[in-house]
Structures are given as structure tokens and as C-alpha cells.
Specification:
Elements: H1 7-21, H2 27-31, H3 43-62, H4 72-83, H5 86-103, H6 114-128, H7 133-146
Helix pairs in contact: 3-5, 4-5, 4-7, 5-7, 6-7
């Protein structure tokens, strides 16, 4: 089997193929020239929001202290989940899952303020009763991660 590629090499080749064939934002979007003219239903706009959600996921993983003190971000993300285009919905759900682990209770950590708990509880109840299956699923991820 000297001619067959190894498992790691196949993964690397697949990753390189994905990176080279993935859609890229136009140069105007990257320079900030066309951002004001983009419509929310434009594919470029959905792709840029997907990249922003991916960045938010990394932020939750690397510096959770920056996103755990406020309930505005989970509220906005759960609201966006009901209307977001399919192209950006998966990164949005990943960002919500990362945010759920940030807000999960830790052993020995002080509990969050009661007002924050009440806001998050009402948000999760509203999302669990939503007509969007994606919002219901994400609310269940939050509940399961909250222990």
C-alpha cells in the first residue's frame, strides 16, 4: 500500500480542497465599500453574517468573560435564529451553543444575578415555544448545557 495516501494526508487534501473552493466575499465587501448597499437577503450578506457568527464562537471559547455578563447577545442571537437564512444558520447555532457553555453554571462559581437568570429563563421559554425548529433546538441545547 505504498501508493495509497495515508489517512492524515487525505484529511489535509480534503481541507485544502474545501478552503480553495469555498465561496469568498467579494473584494468590495472586504474593503468595506459595498456594506451599505448589501441587502439582508443577498448571499454575500448571509456569508458575512456567517463569518461574524463564527468569530463570535471563537470569542466565546477564548475569552468567555467578555460575553457572559450581558443578556443582550443571547437575546439578539435567538431572535436572529428565527429569521436567519439557511446559509448562516449553522454558524449561528454554533455561536449559540458556545454562548450556552459560557452561561452554564460552574461548580464553585458564584451564581449569576437573579435578574439575569430571569431574563435568560424567559428567553429560553419563549424560544422553546417558537415555531422555528432551530430556535427550539437551540433552547434545548442551552437547557441541557445549563445543568
Amino acid at each position: 500500500m505504498a501508493g495509497a495516501p495515508r489517512r492524515g494526508h487525505r484529511r489535509l487534501a480534503y481541507s485544502m480542497q474545501v478552503l480553495t473552493t469555498a465561496p469568498r466575499p467579494s473584494p468590495q465587501v472586504l474593503r468595506g465599500e459595498a456594506t451599505g448597499a448589501l441587502r439582508t437577503d443577498d448571499p454575500q450578506s448571509a456569508m458575512m453574517r456567517g463569518l461574524a457568527y463564527g468569530t463570535l464562537t471563537k470569542l466565546c471559547q477564548r475569552t468567555p468573560q467578555h460575553v457572559q455578563s450581558d443578556t443582550k447577545l443571547p437575546t439578539e442571537l435567538f431572535t436572529a435564529l428565527e429569521t436567519e437564512q439557511m446559509a448562516a444558520r449553522a454558524p449561528l447555532q454554533e455561536a449559540l451553543a458556545a454562548l450556552a457553555s459560557v452561561h452554564a453554571r460552574r461548580i464553585g462559581a458564584p451564581p449569576p444575578p437573579p435578574a439575569m437568570l430571569a431574563t435568560l429563563r424567559s428567553l429560553l421559554l419563549r424560544s422553546a415555544a417558537s415555531t422555528s425548529s432551530h430556535a427550539r433546538y437551540s433552547s434545548m441545547v442551552w437547557i441541557a448545557d445549563g445543568r
